[in-house]
Amino acid sequence: MTTKRVDVLRIRPTEAESILDGLAVEEPLEISLSIPSAQPPVLDKSISITMRTPGADKDLAIGFLFTEGMISKGSQIEKITKAENRIQVFLNSDQGVDLSKLDRHFYTSSSCGVCGKASLEAIKTVCQLKEVDAKEWQVNQDLLYNLPSKLREKQAVFADTGGIHAAALFDINGQFLLSREDVGRHNALDKLVGAALTSDRFSLPLDEQLLLLSGRASFELIQKAVMAGITFVMAIGAPSSLAVELAIEHEITLVGFLKKERYNIYAGGQRISLRP
Description:
The protein is α/β, with parallel strands linked by helices. Helices cover 22% and strands 32% of the residues.
């Protein structure tokens, strides 16, 4: 269940009325990892508790493991099991798994995936993809103006509640490819990356796709984009200073405050054609 109905008293200048209002569901999800050939013979480790909107939980777990640098490809996963609000990912071996990352116990809120991590040093994740070469392609600015409305058309839960984030992929011609929703902006992106990682339609790095975020662009969201090899990120809201610094460091095009007729370019403007 992604939405829930509650009784509210809606106040307007000329009236007050009781209505049923839709809310985005927020529940905890514990992500655990099982590695068969680690020491001891089977290592079962609870690695995260995140507050999320139920739905696409397998995508969330896979995307989280990938963007946190714990796995590097979908083929490492043997199977995934789920029981209520706990999901367990079984790997087929410990090959390519950085076991030191499993000691980073942290609670992840729905608003900020960085909050609560064991140390500041744990924030920067080492990207396991090969360094992505800056592709020489451009998109026209008129194309960008249409993307927020295209995303809104795909946001079924947002339309019902007004209280949920989304992350979406478009191709360089502005065609919609894939989206995921969640009450947590970082969860929405993890779900998107997890879905892309296990889909035959995509191959990582996602360096020829455009990423659109429904909210602001935080450091962690740009970090996750780096992990997935994404080089073009747009946000409806503002970026943070660290997000801009990281985008510049990794040659990512970063657009903020994207609306119907305006936006700001914070990094990588060479990928946007300003010609009419």
